[in-house]
């Protein structure tokens, strides 16, 4: 199209992609135009600084954590259609990545574990004890939380405030404590708004008025308020800016440093390799053996995802 004289406006968070194909780059922040430069005269690091208004030293900060005993284990999971014989475990203080091509079955596995879809076979264990999960309520009771891929469709309740969105899973518990209508949910929302740097720092603001990154931080806060042992994150940084990505990665790092077990589904290989301790690659509804962080390469992951190497 370019060779035909067609002018193209290309909008993307993928900085390498932008630098590879664009002639000029315009940076926006908070609804304002910050700068326009030739693509050949700007680096990805400079773009990040202009996008977030500050230096971001590391988009994939790796917080040291002590990896403990197996906290979560699935064996022989199958829905009879989209995934078959899935097995992996996650230890406390560990981030297990689940990656693969679109349609490989990653989200379907997560939804089944959380009770959003039925399992035809398989076993789920938390801290060595088998649990039966037939609904999201049962999953939460067992200690499993799930942040979905579709943030706007399945994550937020757009008509509600940040406070109401954060406190949804624990309203009953707060009510039993006699704190609803007083200060319980407000204290909870204020804590996570502060700890997770949700901007603007106003828990009464409607959540649909926040940026994608701040909406995502509120959704993660919601499930942490329920006190899970295992947190499943499905594409947690999709559609958020680089600064919000770094902040979400920092939050995940702090959670595992505190002993939580995390399963992170991601299609972004730099994210998978930069954040995860081990990685399972899915292809056609089946899972590879876990790959240790030190053995990860983009080539190996893509070979497993495409079938060039036996999974």
Description:
The chain is α/β, with parallel strands linked by helices and 311 residues long. Helices cover 34% and strands 22% of the residues. The protein contains 12 helices and 13 strands. It has helices spanning 15-21, 44-52, 106-113, 136-142, 151-155, 162-167, 171-176, 184-195, 212-224, 242-257, 269-275, 298-306; strands at residues 24-29, 32-38, 70-78, 86-91, 95-100, 121-126, 129-131, 144-147, 230-234, 261-265, 278-283, 286-287, 291-292. Strands 5, 8, 9, 10, 11, 12 and 13 form a 7-stranded mixed β-sheet that branches. Strand 3 and strand 4 (86-91) form a beta hairpin. It is globular and about 60 Å long. The model is unreliable at 174-182 (pLDDT under 50).
In short:
This protein is α/β, with parallel strands linked by helices.
What labels describe this entry?
311 residues; 4-stranded antiparallel sheet; globular
Q: How would you state the average pLDDT, rounded? A: 89
Number of helices: 12
Oligomer: single chain
Proportion of β residues? Answer: 15-25%
What characteristic shape results from the CA principal axes?
globular
Number of strands: 13
* Model regions low in confidence, pLDDT < 50 over at least 5 residues: 174-182
Q: What's the main sheet like?
A: 7 strands, mixed
Through-space gap between termini: 39 Å
Query: Helicity level, as a percent range?
Result: 25-40%
Rg from alpha-carbon coordinates = 20 Å
- What structural category characterises the helix and strand content? alpha/beta
Please trace the helix and strand order, writing H or E for each element: HEEHEEEHEEHEHHHHHEHEHEEEH
